[in-house]
Every structure is written in structure tokens, then in C-alpha cells.
Amino acid sequence: MAALLDVSTISLETARRAVAATLEAARERGIAVCVAVVDRAGHLLSFDRMDGAPLLCAQLAQDKAHTVAVFGLPTHEWWDLVRDEPALLHGLVKTERLVVFGGGVRIAAGDTLVGALGVSGGSADEDRELADAGARACADLFTT
Questions:
Q1: Can you give the pLDDT at residue 18?
Q2: What pTM did the predictor assign?
Q3: For 12-142, CATH number?
Q4: Deepest of 24, 58, 103, 134, by most Cβ within 10 A of its Cβ?
């Protein structure tokens, strides 16, 4: 039995790279968003709110990233898991910071979750596409 675990997580520099790529993609699409990146434990590393992004989106972006980090599942995959399960569906609404619509994605090194990215300000599909762009910007950092 191991007494300690070695855990990989993203750095501040990597988080900032993900945010910058997401903001660039959002500007190209003309969408004002908030972007949050958390480490693998769900702690905020980097955050930006674009001019004109709705204020509520700041917390939503952070909660999307947090949801992914603590559960390991992208936010867009939640609805299919709970929609036909009334007990789960009604119980989830009582779970703080859990978001079950698109915009939260994993930042992974291979199969290992090392962080998460949340985007809010567009539609759920737009937020997901922008989050994917941010996560992809980090992928080459993890290859050896």
C-alpha cells in the first residue's frame, strides 16, 4: 500500500495559455465570455472576464471548471447521465457548484486529468467549443 501518491497538475503558465487561447477563439467568434482554469483539485488558477461578458458568467465559468475537476467528467456529458433518473436529477440541484450543461472540459495529459477549463457567455455549444479550443492549446505541452 502506498502512503503517498504522486499527482500531476497544471501550472499557472499552462492555465494562462489555456485562457489566452480561449479568449482568442472567443474574439474570433465575436462572443464575450468568462474563462476559468482550475487545477486537478478544482482550485482556481487563472480567470478572465471579457468586456461585455454577463456578470453571472463569471461564477458559471468557475463552477463549470470546478465540476469537471472534482468529477472528471465534462459538463456536457452530465445531462445524458441524469435526465432519466429522477432521484439523481432532483438531488443534483442541491449540489453546490455542479453544472450539467456544456462549457466545462478536461485538461488532460494522456488519460490523466491535470486541470479543467470552464467557459460561460455563449450558448452551451459555443461555450463547449471555446473550452475545447483552450484545452487543445495545452495538449502539445504534455507530449514527450
A1: 97
A2: 0.93
A3: 3.30.450.150
A4: 103
